[in-house]
Amino acid sequence: MIEFKGVSKAYPNGTVALENVDFYVEKGEFVFILGHSGAGKSTLIKLMLREELPTEGTIIVGDYDLGRIKRRQIPYLRRKLGVVFQDFRLIPNLTAYENVAFAMRVTNIPSREIRRRVPYILDLVGLGNKGRAYPNQLSGGEQQRVALARALVHNPPIIIADEPTGNIDPEMSYDIMELLTEINRLGTTVVVVTHEHELVREFHQRVVQIDHGRVSSDTSRMGGVLA
Fold this sequence. Notes:
Number of strands: 10
Number of helices: 7
Largest sheet: 6 strands, mixed
Order of helices and strands: EEEHEEHEHHHEHEHEE
Strand order of the largest sheet: 6-7-8-3-9-10
Strand content: 25-35%
Radius of gyration: 17 Å
Shape: globular
């Protein structure tokens, strides 16, 4: 589903964010990308979303070679990716229901399908009774669940979660990770980008560790242990 082959990224100011990165994510996998602040995690996400282009190397996401993709194809690529951001990025004057529905409306999904799909997704993330609540009426964990619902509503084959537990308390963090694990069990490929070693140890999944722009370790999917 995702493959990086010899990928490097240098910015115009001379900063080298990634250097000769190789890794892959197979269909249906759950993978943590672990690294400290400044390790290159944010650049990885921008490259996967085609917000940036690599300086060198090849990136494949689904059926798309991101170095060769035409500009008009980028929206179709992004519809295959559900992205959950650390800062939630909810629209404050829209309810939870409307925030999720908005993600469908901007891609011209029929109203009938929106009315069918949004309540189902809110139920899936445990917010079936919070559809009429505005973001400021929700806890941090509940806001993150709305953000997850918004990412899931298109039924994308890949979910990318950028520090999904960074702004919520430890108990809520565990709940969000349980949700992502359950979504993965249903067949969705999940990539969680994080700096939280303890969280990674709690959930026994494959871990690709990034250090100073390089892949420093990649635990075995057959039970490798993070050092």
